[in-house]
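Annotated sample (chain length 282).
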Amino acid sequence: MRNIFGKNVTDDKNPVYDGEAAFLRQRVPAEQQAVLEEQADRLTASVKKMVCLPLVIVQVVAVIVGFICLRVFLNLWTDEDVLLWWLLAVAVVCFAAFAVLLWGNKKRRESVEQSDDYQTLTTQMEAASMGSRALLGIPADAADIEVLGYDYEMKNGKEKRTDSNWEYDTCCFYAFAQEGELFLADNVNKFAISLAAVTAVRRRMGKTKVFMWLKDEEPKSAAYKPYKVKYDEDRNVYTLPAVVVLEIAHGEATYQLVLPEYEWERVLQPLVGGAVPALTEE
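Output written by the structure step:
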């Protein structure tokens, strides 16, 4: 059973979704794709200005050295050993340097975000996005939804995930339902799933690691706390205790649409109503 949004990136210039042949309804013209890519590249270049890599490296080194000096001082401390007091001084200086650099990076990011160039780029990117929405017929009231996919490459005839540190990537789409179909669209593609083809909706229990938390609210916020999401902020990886899987028949094949429980309860279930089977435990 293939994930609709499993993506074959063996040819990185022409990635293909596993569900593309079965569910892709429309794609924006090449000219619009070029506009989106240009705007995204320009915005990415601007975002990179927010972070000074050498300063980040110095921050990491400072905090590591500080912890080492503090650990040695605490383990070997005596009133009479002057050298150990120097270690404490070094630790304090390292932590102070880390704090100053952290503050400097924050100010650097705020400066870039408030610049006229950055504001212009975000406005242009939003205009390009609105152009895609018009071309794909995405209604203004379409809901934002996150589904779970993954990238893989084919090597020696076998599928190999591009990253084994997590099971899924977060994929963002607009979602809306019309005339018995569920549509999932981004700025390039629009996928259509017949609600009559959904044969089962199951809750799959078990820890599932997902890359990139993209919600405005934190996992511990009131909106998401009931779902017991664990978040590793350093790696930007979150762990779900369960996911919801829609099984979709297409010809002789069966595909699956995988999403977090909160996306099912807050977004998809209200959209599809009773047009799909009731949720059951896997």
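Annotation: Helices lie at 20-23, 30-48, 53-76, 82-113, 116-136, 261-272.
Annotation: The chain has a mean pLDDT of 90.
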